[in-house]
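Hi all, long-time lurker, first post. I run a small reading group and we've been trying to get comfortable going from sequence to structure in the token notation. Rather than ask abstract questions, I figured I'd post a concrete chain and ask someone more experienced to write out its structure so we can walk through it together at our next meeting. Sequence below, copied exactly:
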Amino acid sequence: MNNLLAGKRGIIFGALDENSIAWKVALKAHEQGAKFTLTNAPVALRLGEINKLAEQCGTVVIPADATLTEDLEKLITQSVEQLGGKLDFVLHSIGMSPNVRKGKAYTDLNYEWFNKTVDISAISLHKLLQTCHKLDAINDWGSVLTLSYIAGQKAFPGYGDMADAKAMLESIVRSFGLYYGNSKKVRINAISQSPTKTTAGTGIKGFGSFFEFAEKMSPLGNAPAEDCANYCITLFSDYTRFVTMQTLYHDGGFSNMGVSEAIMQVFDTEK
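-- Answer (accepted) --
Happy to help. Here is the structure in token form:
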């Protein structure tokens, strides 16, 4: 504990259960002296254990559907009132694809579900940022983070329309980062995390194979959720004030690898 976030206020989206990266970020932020509110969609609140997390962190849960601007306005306004001042950080940890959940192939998407995927997993970030910007809810030099995956940059079988949503998400990081940086010095970044055994991650078809492949490919192995939470804390802190508009790879080196010896050994037929 070194109070990296002492005196800072924020909102953390997306904590569902103890496996969630957002859950671990909340615990780390609390340890580092931050005050924050927790939020998730009403349906997720019924399925998860977020009230237990709120009790651990001495905070409150404010339900909000991140695809509805009226919900976001209420969430942000109530959070500022609850915390006693404007925000210094926000974690956007939101992603869901009905097509992936229901096993639809990328070549046979249900387009109504595709629209929901993009709205929930990408456009919700724009709605959040636009609402914060209009309400002037984030202090100068504040930090907004969202969670991405390398499928937004490279093709991965089984990731479906979530790959398109992640590509859009990372574009919003860059585009809104320009405007928020110019107006309020607010920085916006995406963390492209290793495959992680969260409730959302393990719901993707072939996740186990993804996980093992990335573990063998990455020089440092897959980055655990706990370490991703630590990385988030550094990006909320004042030590990273000039980092913005970036997709930051937290993946043990996976994103820069062509092939690894461990993967080559799997296919090595020489005896």
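A couple of things your group might point at:
The chain has one domain: 9-267.
The mean pLDDT is 93.
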